[in-house]
Design goal:
Blueprint (H helix, E strand, L loop, with lengths): L4 H20 L3 H7 L5 E6 L6 H5 L6 E6 L9 H13 L4 E7 L3 H8 L6 H5 L1 H14 L4 H21 L2 H8 L5 E7 L6 E3 L7 H12 L2
Parallel strand pairs: 1-2, 1-3, 3-4
Antiparallel strand pairs: 4-5
Helix pairs in contact: 4-9, 7-8
The structure holds zinc ion.
The site of zinc ion has 7 residues, from α5.
Length: 215
């Protein structure tokens, strides 16, 4: 047991939360301990201000979650790929939400090139390429606008990357209901917004890809 009050506070919070949950729903932990049946997979940024269960109002058991810096979906990342495979094949989630957020430090770092070495620099390679590709055009509106737009474009990029994973492709081939959503969270107002049309089949994916290459 820790004597550090910063740590002890978390256990106190936890005990208070358990008491509240049981007061509202005495069977909650009995029920959720036996199984989870989430309808949603959330793929978002690790940013401490973007807390998926809280901002969607979902209790434990309803949201399967993967978070990393700048909500990157990379097919060489076995962590993220395993989460997607488990959620789609085993849990059979019906929705995958890719959620970025304005003011993302990961996207900012990729645009400003402050990081030149270490794992994070490599992690952000894909976003750096996206920036290199769109820089000239986006900078016409100034850096602040460019950062907001880059966060949005990154959601699009990761959405399309998700749609190309084996798990998602096979679900669509088997005609399972699986919709991919691209959302953005506003740190300023706490609101979620849908940025792009949902993708729910291979033909919709092909259409989305052609729209992205010919905006
Ligand atoms: Zn972020």
């Amino acid at each position: 047991m820790s004597e550090d009050p910063e740590i002890e506070a978390l256990f106190e919070n936890n005990r208070r939360w358990v008491a509240e949950v049981i007061r509202e729903d005495p069977e909650f932990f009995v029920r959720t301990a036996s199984q989870q049946a989430p309808k949603y997979l959330w793929i978002g940024c690790s940013d401490s201000r973007v807390t998926p269960n809280q901002i969607t109002g979902l209790p434990p058991g309803q949201l399967f979650v993967h978070r990393n810096v700048a909500n990157v979906i990379n097919r060489t990342d076995s962590n993220c790929m395993s989460v997607i495979e488990f959620a789609v094949r085993v849990l059979e989630v019906r929705h995958v939400i890719v959620c970025g957020h304005y003011g993302c430090a990961g996207v900012h770092a990729a645009m400003t090139d402050h990081l030149t070495e270490g794992p994070l620099a490599g992690w952000l390679d894909g976003i750096r390429n996206l920036w290199d590709h769109n820089k000239a055009n986006l900078l016409k509106g100034g850096m602040q606008m460019a950062e907001a737009r880059m966060v949005e474009l990154n959601v699009r990029k990761q959405m399309l990357s998700l749609c190309q994973t084996t798990a998602v492709e096979q679900a669509w081939q088997q005609r399972k209901y699986l919709h991919v959503h691209g959302w953005i969270y506003g740190l300023n107002d706490g609101l979620l917004r849908s940025l792009y049309a949902d993708i729910g089949s291979i033909s919709e994916r092909i259409r989305a890809e052609s729209e992205s290459t010919n905006p």
